[in-house]
Amino acid sequence: MFGEIAGPLLFKPQHMKNLVNCLAVIVPISNMPNSNLESVMERFASGITVEDTSSAIRRGNIEYYSAEVELNAKFRLYARNCAAVFAGHNTVAAQLKINVKRPYTIIDGDEELPLGDEFQSLVRCFVDTHEKKPEKKFLPAAKLIEQLSISLEYKRLTEAARLEMDELNIKCFQVLRAIIHNEERKLPEDWATRTSENKISKCLKFIAGLQNLYDQKGAMKKSLPHLASRNDLIAKEVLAFLCIMLFNANDSVQQSMLTYFFSTREEVFFMAVRDRMALSTNSIKEKRSLQTQHEAKLKESSDSKKIKNMFMVTLMALRQIQAYEDAMRQQRLSGWTRKTTKSCVKPPPKKKPKKQKEVDKMPDHKPGQGREKTIKTRNKKVAEKKDGVVSIGGILKKDKEVTFVNPLAKENEALMQDVGEGDMTIKMEEQDFDTIAADTSAFEYRNDGYIELVLKVMARMCDGQNKHLQ
């Protein structure tokens, strides 16, 4: 009864979703028949007609600021292209100007480094190019390690000063990592199986000398306390720095870590590792729990056919509401993007309109509706890419319509005469019920506590059969 009364009064997509989700949970666990749920869900699954609240003032503002919107779109495109050109390709040849066919860094990875000549010039500021031995060549980088120690003493800072200090620490860790990373990138891809070669052995000794220099300057003692920072980015940089310091099982660095663990009462490293692993474990447990609850909910009723039909109706309603929300957003932003796409993108070829006789022959056409226009999504290429709008991969067996009522009362007051608003048809493809159940159970969590990086650090700590760290 509540759904039948409140359903026609709802016009916001979020309220519609809340009502559908609420009824989908309450009705199955109660003694009410499933037919009550289906009658309410059919209201949302069979088509939604809501008045568009766009006003003449908004359309006037769109026309007034259309030139600025077009210029801003060009500036954003220009900025993205300039950033890509300035940073260069993600290759060792483009970043370090050496003939090595390897990627420089892993984009969006835990050990990612900035690209571009600006960052490499910053790295070269801490390298003495006139020296050949690593102990003297990379001696200026010891200033960055000292900066990490100094920043630990500043604990009571304002919010702005703390953010600035965190940014400085992150940049210090990145430069320290990049110095070793640049030397490691000079190795061939299969260096691990060719360590007996003179060239590769010489390069590995050079990297070990650089790691030993960091270790002699107290890199372990001055960097490990930063793991206790509340900033996750700093913790990630510390873990990445430890990972590159333990590259190729450096005995000196491993011994320094062991000495630090025995000499200090603070268990910063182990607490940080435990917290990261706990965060990852909780994410995995929550994901499995949600999957188990979802699977148990599908197996509760003995009548699988009713459950299947009820689930299909609920999913149809939710997908139709989502399609309505996306269509509403397109209608709201159509005025802003009209002139931008006209100048930046080639317009699609115009198609000849159908004659009135052909429209009258359509099966869904009724007499007297010749003047009404049913406009499908304007940009078909964008609509085909975004399956959630036009072809969501749903289970509907017929076309569902989202109808917008144009506010014609104040149309003469608008500055834009060509509003271009009308009815929008949302088509959804058929899909099996098993596929839907699999899709809805695919829960993903992005924040995994950098568990992959944590495990990599722990593996390199014990690399080389270091029994004490093991």
From TrEMBL:
Residues 335-380 are annotated as: Disordered. It comes from the Eukaryota. Residues 356-380 have a biased composition (Basic and acidic residues). This is Uncharacterized protein. It comes from Lymnaea stagnalis (Great pond snail).
